[in-house]
Write a structure and sequence with these properties.
Elements: E1 2-4, H1 7-17, E2 24-29, H2 35-47, E3 50-55, H3 75-84, E4 89-91, H4 95-98, H5 116-120, H6 124-139, E5 143-147, H7 151-163, E6 169-173, H8 193-198, H9 200-214, H10 220-233, E7 238-246, E8 260-268, E9 271-279
The chain binds adenosine monophosphate.
């Protein structure tokens, strides 16, 4: 496995790897890898000849009061996990190379990024869209794999690719969970033991909504309060949102007549956790268990 730091090295590697029509998959990450990331790597391996993992804590997607400085980092462990998972190359760029002084162009999605996390984290999706556009230009992948845990990010990237004509196929992996149902996240390490056990209210709240939906309930105005009640049992410090939105537009849905997303963001202390389930009226029983 190759570990590449310079943008020019990465470009050269991709050019060689892509000869003879061999396909290349990119899995963008911010490191501190867990089984969720590795599931994305497996999906990438099944779909392409070569797999590149990018490992870059992107300063542009963190707000001034967010956790950029203390975001967990462990490059040696990440590289070992990538090697064991059969990754061909890891791209670990320097923040100074990605954003040299004087850089003044950003990429901004203007519709699906405005609600949910976009409202709570101004500038976050501009940072995401910008770094992903740069990674696509540098790595030149045929496909890229993202996790549905960050569902709004998936929609932003799908719009980015469609609207700016990136020749990259986007694959979406379902949410990977701990055995007790908490969605895996690099930020789970911040949780105290009490917060960790109270955080199970997220999974219970989504599960309660799923049961209601499967029994035929289609009104967001019924599902959302139900989610709120179950979340309250875990006494999160803040419930940022617990909302049903249309999967295409991410605008609030009244009745669930098309595929929708039930998305939740809560904070325990300084730790922000997000989770979601898809609600598809054409396949109500096909929802992944939470
Ligand atoms: P991150 O390192 O948090 O930026 O995540 C990198 C990629 O892994 C993103 O596409 C995430 O959506 C995905 N990811 C992170 N956690 C999970 C999870 N629990 N299940 C599925 N995908 C995940």
């Amino acid at each position: 496995m190759d570990v590449l730091h310079a943008i020019s090295e990465m470009r050269g590697w991709s050019r060689t790897a892509g000869t003879g029509n061999r396909s290349l998959a990119l899995v963008p990450t911010m490191g501190c890898l867990h089984a969720g990331h590795l599931a994305l790597v497996r999906m990438a391996r099944q779909s392409a000849d070569h797999v590149v993992v990018s490992n870059f804590v992107n300063p542009l997607q963190f707000g001034p009061s967010e956790d950029y400085a203390r975001y967990p980092r462990d490059l040696d462990r990440d590289n070992r996990l990538c090697r064991e998972a059969g990754v061909d190359a890891v791209f670990v760029p320097d923040a100074g190379d990605m954003y040299p002084a004087g850089a003044s162009v950003v990429v901004e999605e203007t519709r699906v990024s405005s609600g949910l996390c976009g409202r709570m984290r101004p500038g976050h999706f501009r940072g995401v869209a910008t770094v992903v556009a740069k990674l696509f230009n540098i790595v030149q992948p045929d496909l890229a794999v993202f996790g549905r845990k960050d569902a709004q990010q998936v929609r932003v990237i799908q719009r980015l690719v469609q609207d700016l004509d990136f020749p990259v196929r986007i694959l979406v992996h379902p949410i990977v969970r701990e055995p007790d149902g908490l969605a895996m996240s690099s930020r789970n390490v911040y949780l105290s033991p009490s917060e960790r056990s109270r955080a199970l209210c997220i999974r219970r709240a989504l599960e309660a909504a799923r049961v209601l939906f499967e029994s035929g309930e289609r009104a967001a105005g019924v599902l959302e309060p139900c989610v709120g009640e179950v979340l309250a049992v875990g006494r999160p410090d803040v419930v940022e949102y617990a909302t049903v939105v249309d999967w295409d537009t991410l605008e609030p849905a009244g009745q669930i007549m098309r595929p929708c997303l039930l998305a939740v963001a809560v904070r325990f202390g300084r730790t922000r956790l997000i989770d979601n389930i898809l609600l598809d009226p054409l396949n109500p029983a096909g929802i992944e268990p939470v």
